[in-house]
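tool_call: predict_structure(chain=1)
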Amino acid sequence: MNSIISVGLLLLISSAHAETNVAKQFEDIYAKYESNSALHSEEKVKLLINLDQNIRALIDKQWSQQHQLVDTKLWKKEYEKIGIIIGGFTDTVIYTGKLLKEAKTLDVNSTYDAYTSYTDFCSNCNSFGYMPNIEGALTYAKKYPEGPFIEDTLITIGNFYDDLYKVLKFTNKERVDYKFDCFSKYINKKSLSVQIENARQSAIKYYTNVLALHSDNSSSNETIKEWLTNLKSHNSEGWHYCSD
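tool_result:
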């Protein structure tokens, strides 16, 4: 058999196997959620956090490690109950964080705050026009420097300052009003040039901190390296938040 055809066939088989595995895990997560609805609060919180982490591993990790999206054919309508929906910017399978929000509601003593407080600033991260609660993100990064969501948090903060840098660079002629409205409360009366440089340096700092974690999210890290290079050359492009 031609070696190119052979390699292509192996990739096809591998992809089909991976999809079957993801579909099976989606079904298992949904079944566990449905069958354990009567659990007492703390047990339910632990289950919800565990299921939340499993969903993120299936959807988010696939993107951050390989830049691959979950095929919409693996989605079922009933998965909306566990926060797996079709949406985002490309009509793909995304996770809303629904189970973590449920866990936070039940975690009245904040026993699992290192997990549940992530919802304080990233409750609808995949929605159009989303703006993070930057104060909440900064608080999480300071309180849980080794927390389960520290990488996502540092990226959130870096992205925020990257966008703020671009907004501050707008001239009156270039200014896009809805972008300015999203960030206006973070713009003060200090020298504009000072604010621009502070935002740029802050973005560089937090992106550098992400890479210092040396995570296995290779695709995500490559993207962050590119953003970092652009910022260092004063040439950041593209937007992370407050999309149209």
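agent: The longest helix spans residues 3-35. Proceeding to next step.
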